[in-house]
Amino acid sequence: MPESPFIKSNRLNNLSYAIRGPIFDIAQQLEAMGQKIINLNIGNPAPFGFDVPDEIIHDMLINIRNAQGYSHHLGIFSARKAVMHYTQQQGVKGVTIEDIFIGNGVSELILMSMQAVLNDGDEVLIPSPDYPLWTTAVSLSGGKPVHYICDETADWNPDIDDITSKITAKTKGIVLINPNNPTGAVYEKDVLKSIVKLAQEHKLIIFSDEIYDKILYDSNIHHPVAALSDDVLIFTYGGLSKNYRAAGFRGGWLVLSGPIHRAKSINEGLNLLASMRLCANVPTQYAIQTALGGYQSIQDLVAPEGRLTRQRDLIHYMMTDIPGISCVKPKGALYLFPKIDLKKFDFNSDEDFAYRLLEEKHVLIVPGTGFNHRDHAHFRIVFLPQLDELEHAARLMRNFLDSSRVISATNVIEV
Q1: 191 pLDDT exceeds 80?
Q2: Class of 10-50+300-404 per CATH?
């Protein structure tokens, strides 16, 4: 009689992280067989030649002996002070050193926040499409993710009416991802003010993921939501991984602002969780002050002739030049989120498209359903590769799409 298998936790059932999900696994298998894969699936700057600024590396190296032991569980003083000064520059009022938590990337801090705030059954409003870690973190913490619409026809800004309709007695907070992953949206100030007003009326927490706050194109402006209100409890997340191209360093921060005096219990919970993981990795903490206070090299990359701007412009033009593909031009971040007119192609869904594109052309993208977007007709492209590789990938996608078109009666020429 065979032995019964060991089974994973029920908490993990129905959870996924499509950016490194089944399609990614197939890509890995193809690479192991010697195939060259064009990876447009993950926002990891380093493999595409985006290096961490030298001054950040230098300051980590000269402080490496100081980083041998555990640090304070909230983070080293210089790092938290630098984040505090950054919030002051943004116009956020009342933040102290004790309101700042340094973490092993924003991902860890998101999960810690949900664990500190949620009870079983609490609801959190999350954008659709979203960065899927948010949905997973809410579920793992016993909460219920409730997705609200971001309107593609309004440059992917949140739909205020839809948010309002989904607030219930169980709603604990609203998640914002601004600039947005995966759409590249940069939210309008009036939209943010409306969300702040809703949070104030319903006594909700705002969780604002602002990891891309400096990656902005075409003179677009990012409005930190914490600078728009003193009356709403706001968790703001930032880090080194995107603006400073230091994804592997795993350096992030969480800032609490607003009526902190009413959040003493939550602060105690966050302190407990921060203590349990002992501390964030210490060498990276010595990079934070240098990063925030030094030359902001990201500005060169997002300037009109900067590398990121040129890559965004190229891939957006080449994709929207394909009949049957449309796309709102990103105002920020590192991603394109095109839409496929499924009536014009022989794909069943965005997932079908992504699998077949990988198998036939060895181009790896992520289907929109992986970001909890339910129309099954979108996909995300990372535009970090150099122009020549992006152009090659776009041509492969065009050839694949052209070969997958549905031939209708109106397309047939009678002889």
Answers
A1: yes
A2: alpha beta
